[in-house]
Design goal:
Helices cover 34% and strands 17% of the residues. By secondary structure, it is of the alpha+beta class.
Length: 185
């Protein structure tokens, strides 16, 4: 395996650390137990995407000035578009309330195996807790990483909703105050 560019690695770790803090903050406030989002810094590179995931999951160091990571108890899939492929990685927690609800391999296979990819999605490896996949660019088939990233986002959320692991939005929740509640607009 070729050595990673230190600058790219630093960017991937920084992005992963920030994502981890955001995900755990959302989770701790009652947000989703499973989440799918894009990861820009890895640029479709699997090794950099793994470094990003590791940074998102690392335990928060209380001595650091800025919190980073901490989202090991949140299930997550990161989607990273590069020039020639879309790289995917997912993590399912080993502990806390999301543990045991979903296998990472099952999640990855459902996303890369979605009908939208017409058999072009590839499951690379995985187990109960981690999985990797990719979709290679194919101009002749109209397969482009950025387009596939959007399709994967939809496929992942649809799969999670089907499993009851992603909250359904309810448009009736938009609260509008009564005129007599002493709020000035």
């Amino acid at each position: 395996m070729a050595e990673m560019d230190p600058k790219k690695l630093k960017l991937a770790v920084k992005e992963g650390g920030k994502m981890g803090v955001e995900l755990i903050g959302n989770f701790d406030l009652g947000g989703p137990e499973f989440f799918t989002t894009k990861a820009d810094a890895p640029g479709g590179d699997h090794a950099l995407l793994q470094a990003l995931m590791d940074a998102a999951n690392k335990e928060i160091d209380p001595t650091e000035e800025e919190a980073k990571g901490g989202s090991a108890k949140v299930g997550k899939m990161f989607l990273s578009a590069g020039d020639d492929k879309l790289a995917l990685i997912c993590h399912c927690p080993k502990e806390d309330k999301a543990a045991g609800k979903l296998s990472a391999s099952e999640w990855m296979k459902a996303v890369v195996g979605n009908d939208a990819f017409k058999g072009d999605g590839k499951f690379l490896e995985g187990d109960e807790f981690y999985a990797k996949g990719e979709i290679l660019m194919d101009k002749e088939k109209g397969r482009f990483p950025l387009k596939d990233r959007d399709e994967c986002q939809s496929a992942s959320v649809g799969f999670l909703k089907g499993k009851g692991l992603f909250p359904e939005t309810n448009d009736d929740d938009d609260w509008v105050p009564d005129e007599d509640c002493d709020i000035e607009w």
